[in-house]
Amino acid sequence: EQFTGLEGKFVELDETIHSFKEVVEGKHDELPEQAFYLVGGIDEAVEKARKTGGEEEQEDEGSGDEDAEQTGEDNEG
């Protein structure tokens, strides 16, 4: 909390073992690394990935616009 400004979370041992087991078994290999950052159990990581996945799609659409702008600049020069 001191360094991140975010409140810490306590995860019960059973939930920690369950989450670790699912990760080791490869059940969440599709999740981006960032989904696991500063979350509690695996359910929170899945939810975070779902939420940020939508934001990434919007960013990808935005980067297409930037490419179009760059192409326009290339045509001018």
Automatic annotation (TrEMBL):
<feature type="compositionally biased region" description="Acidic residues">
    <location>
        <begin position="55"/>
        <end position="77"/>
    </location>
</feature>
<keyword id="KW-0406">Ion transport</keyword>
<keyword id="KW-0067">ATP-binding</keyword>
<keyword id="KW-0813">Transport</keyword>
<feature type="region of interest" description="Disordered">
    <location>
        <begin position="47"/>
        <end position="77"/>
    </location>
</feature>
<dbReference type="GO" id="GO:0046933">
    <property type="term" value="F:proton-transporting ATP synthase activity, rotational mechanism"/>
</dbReference>
<keyword id="KW-0066">ATP synthesis</keyword>
<keyword id="KW-0472">Membrane</keyword>
<dbReference type="GO" id="GO:0005524">
    <property type="term" value="F:ATP binding"/>
</dbReference>
<dbReference type="GO" id="GO:0045259">
    <property type="term" value="C:proton-transporting ATP synthase complex"/>
</dbReference>
<dbReference type="InterPro" id="IPR050053">
    <property type="entry name" value="ATPase_alpha/beta_chains"/>
</dbReference>
<keyword id="KW-0547">Nucleotide-binding</keyword>
<dbReference type="InterPro" id="IPR024034">
    <property type="entry name" value="ATPase_F1/V1_b/a_C"/>
</dbReference>
<comment type="similarity">
    <text>Belongs to the ATPase alpha/beta chains family.</text>
</comment>
<protein>
    <submittedName>
        <fullName>ATP synthase beta chain</fullName>
        <ecNumber>3.6.3.14</ecNumber>
    </submittedName>
</protein>
<dbReference type="GO" id="GO:0016787">
    <property type="term" value="F:hydrolase activity"/>
</dbReference>
<keyword id="KW-0378">Hydrolase</keyword>
<keyword id="KW-0139">CF(1)</keyword>
